[in-house]
Specification:
3-stranded antiparallel beta sheet; 537 residues; transmembrane; 6-stranded mixed beta sheet; 9 strands
């Protein structure tokens, strides 16, 4: 954020703004499932605001946050460095998604632990408006390609080395189930004498295999526990962009099941729709003009739109995917994504496109015809059935989605979300829970499923709490749900205020209320409950 303005930490009002921004960040879905990351970021910000920035060294942080002793050695124990890296990546994710339009930017610059606080410029808040900046010719684009290097066992026990070898092979197998990811076998190199700890060798592996990402790790056994450290590197820079540790109980009666669970978490972190690989690539190409995008990069514009559901991100995604289908008409994924954009044009009033829903259904059918085993193609068809109110078709398509890849966190969660909108809360909420266990990173509109569930249970207080997670203030559904909940609680003044916001965001809502409600509330009883409430206003 070089164009941003630094805040004055001696200014009381600026301190208030920073603390309010910190609260928004730690309460976001990005940080929701990581209490330790919340604690670390809050500690770094608090110490800096108190004037103790000079104390923020690895030794102090290790003792005060990670319960290390005075004998802490950062060379042998990289806990602070690794967790700070996770906080940095999570902040990037937050500002890429829920905080895309936040005016105050908090970051933890690499190589230090004192946070930076800046007011973001208009240029930072609207990256699409600056697309005229040409991409430097010498910088090559990242691609969704990866190789899995053998995980290294730090013990001489052959059985543990066999476990490590098998783990690597299974990880590569599961990664290859993601249609958008090209997994290249490391054995294509022939010579495997490399040092993963050096950027030069990482770069060499990337060039030799023509991959943008490399994953590897180590395994260390202690009694009946196996500690697994997994890492992801960018081959162009040699930079480690992700790291996580897992513990496997080697005494379990089903070791394969324990291994599968860890691998499922790793692949969800790396390769799911909003995994670290796609986010890294998006950040590397989001300055390009639409005409400069590859077909894959066009899909990233779509994924960015999904996090905000805003018109400003909708139109670049639509243009990019329309271009992608023209350039590569056999690219099934582009047709699937285009289908969803057409559905949203109609259901969310994103654009005035004639027969948008029918166009969407045609695109979804075309996508499935091109690749019936593509999970996102089947999900696009499921969304088509949802838009038509076809519960049987929806359930059938959702079951295909989950069967194709149960480790694709976002797609599994989206399948559960769609089922909840159709009133199938038991199966839908189970899929959402599975998705969250794989990867807590999810778009804020997933909260709609919880809101509707608590609403049908007449637990309006819990529904309001779930509504706090629905942080898309530019989408008419957010004030609409707030309006309905206020009506149910007899709070008509607040309900009228919320309804005025609905009309501001969706001016023709009064005239097309039935259409807009039917677009998402497929369950007749649920739609009737909402309609009855609105009739009281």
């Amino acid at each position: 954020m070089a164009n941003g303005k630094n805040l004055d930490l001696n200014n009381q009002q600026h301190q208030i703004l920073i603390r309010e921004q910190l609260e928004r960040i730690v309460e976001s879905s990005v940080f929701e499932q990581s209490p330790k990351m919340k604690e670390l970021l809050s500690y770094l910000v608090d110490q800096t605001l108190q004037g103790n920035g000079e104390r923020l060294k690895q030794f102090t942080i290790a003792i005060e946050i990670f319960d290390r002793g005075v004998d802490f050695d950062h060379q042998s124990d990289p806990i602070v460095r690794i967790q700070a890296g996770r906080v940095r990546r999570s902040l990037d994710t937050y500002y890429f998604t829920e905080g895309a339009n936040d005016a105050l930017y908090i970051s933890v610059p690499k190589g230090r632990y004192v946070p930076s606080f800046k007011l973001r410029s208009e240029q930072d808040l609207a990256p699409q408006a600056n697309a005229a900046v040409a991409e430097p010719a010498e910088i090559e684009s990242l691609s969704p390609s990866i190789t899995v290097l053998p995980f290294l066992s730090l013990a001489e026990d052959n059985q543990q080395q066999f476990f490590a070898d098998g783990f690597s092979e299974e990880l590569a197998t599961e990664l290859s189930r993601f249609d958008t990811l090209n997994v290249v076998s490391m054995y294509a190199m022939g010579d495997t004498s490399f040092d993963i700890n050096t950027a030069a060798d990482i770069s060499q592996i990337g060039k030799q295999l023509n991959v943008s990402f490399i994953t590897s790790g180590t395994m260390r056994a202690l009694n009946n526990q196996m500690r697994i450290h997994a890492r992801l590197y960018r081959s162009d820079t040699g930079q480690q962009v992700w790291a996580e540790k897992y513990t496997c109980d080697m005494s379990t009666h089903d070791l394969f099941e324990a291994q599968d669970q860890i691998i499922a978490e790793i692949v969800a972190e790396l390769a799911s729709s909003f995994g670290i690989i796609h986010r890294e690539i998006y950040q590397s190409c989001n300055h390009k003009k639409v005409t400069q995008l590859s077909t894959y990069e066009a899909t990233l514009r779509y994924r960015h739109y999904l996090m905000t559901l805003s018109k400003e991100h909708y139109h670049p995604a639509l243009e990019a995917l329309q271009q992608a289908t023209e350039q590569e008409p056999e690219f099934a994924l582009a047709w699937a994504m285009l289908a969803v954009l057409y559905f949203d044009a109609d259901k969310l009033a994103m654009a005035d496109i004639a027969n948008a829903s029918e166009l969407g259904f045609e695109c979804a059918r075309k996508a499935v015809e091109l690749d019936s085993n593509n999970q996102e193609c089947q999900m696009a068809l499921a969304m088509g059935y949802l838009s038509r109110g076809d519960q049987a078709g929806l359930v059938d398509a959702v079951n295909k989605v989950v069967t194709l890849n149960p480790n694709a966190a976002y797609q599994v969660g989206l399948a559960g979300w769609a089922l909840c909108l159709a009133g199938e809360f038991e199966q839908g909420r189970e899929l959402l829970a599975n998705s969250k266990a794989l990867n807590p990173f999810r778009p804020p509109w997933f909260a709609l499923a919880d809101i509707l569930y608590f609403y049908t249970e007449h637990d309006f207080d819990q529904a309001f709490k779930a509504l706090d997670q629905f942080s898309l203030s530019k989408l008419y559904w957010q004030p609409l749900l707030r309006c309905v909940l206020h009506i149910e609680k007899g709070e008509f003044a607040q309900a009228k205020s919320a309804y005025l916001k609905v009309l501001e965001l969706c001016p023709d809502f009064n005239q097309r209320r039935e259409h807009y409600l039917s677009a998402y509330l497929v369950c007749p009883n649920l739609k009737q409950q909402v309609t009855t409430a609105l009739d009281k206003l």
